[in-house]
Specification:
Distance between the termini: 33 Å
CATH topology: Beta-Lactamase
Bound molecules: methionine sulfoxide
Number of domains: 1
CATH superfamily: GAF domain
Strand content: 25-35%
Number of helices: 4
C-alpha cells in the first residue's frame, strides 16, 4: 500500500521533460495542476496561485472553476499561507476563520508554498471534498512538486 495517494516522482519527471521541450510557464503550471488532480481523491481541485507583488494570481487550475482569481496576501487560507510564510493543512474548512469558499462541497484544503530559497513564488492550493485527508507524507509529496516548479519556473 503506497504511503501517499500522489506519486510525485512521475509528476516531477513530466515537468522536467516539458521544460526540456521549452514548455511555457503556463504550460508547466497547468501540467502540475492536471497531473496532481489525476491522482484522484483527495485531489478534488488543484489551483496554482503565483505571487505578483502583494497579490496571488490564479495562473492554472484543474477542477472546479473559482471566482477567487486574485487573492491579496493575508486574505483567506491562500493569502494567510504567504503572510505567515508557511504551508497550511486545513482538515475542516468549516472551522477555518477567514476561509474563502470555492465550493460548498469543499471539506478540507492544503496550501503548499512554491519557494525558491527565501523567495515565495506562489503556491499549490488543493481543495478536497474529503475531511482531513492530507497526511504529513501527502503534504511532502505535494512539496516535491512545488520544489520542482521552483527550480523550473
Ligand atoms: N479557499 C482558498 C481560496 C481559493 S479557492 O479554494 C480555489 C482560501 O481560503 O484562500
Amino acid at each position: 500500500m503506497p504511503e501517499t495517494v500522489l506519486d510525485a516522482a512521475p509528476v516531477v519527471r513530466a515537468l522536467h521533460a516539458a521544460f526540456c521541450r521549452d514548455a511555457s510557464r503556463q504550460e508547466l503550471l497547468q501540467l502540475a495542476a492536471t497531473k496532481i488532480r489525476a491522482s484522484g481523491p483527495p485531489y478534488t481541485g488543484v489551483y496554482l496561485y503565483m505571487l505578483h507583488g502583494q497579490t496571488l494570481v490564479l495562473e492554472a487550475f484543474d477542477g472546479r472553476p473559482t471566482e477567487h482569481t486574485e487573492i491579496p496576501v493575508g486574505a483567506g487560507m491562500c493569502g494567510r499561507a504567504v503572510a505567515e510564510r508557511r504551508d497550511l493543512n486545513i482538515p475542516d474548512v468549516s472551522q477555518a476563520e477567514g476561509y474563502l469558499a470555492c465550493s460548498v462541497e469543499t471539506k478540507s484544503e492544503l496550501v503548499v508554498l512554491i519557494r525558491r530559497h527565501d523567495e515565495i513564488l506562489g503556491q499549490i492550493d488543493i481543495d478536497s471534498d474529503m475531511h482531513d485527508p492530507f497526511t504529513e507524507a501527502e503534504q511532502g509529496a505535494v512539496t516535491e512538486v512545488a520544489d520542482a516548479l521552483a527550480a523550473l519556473l
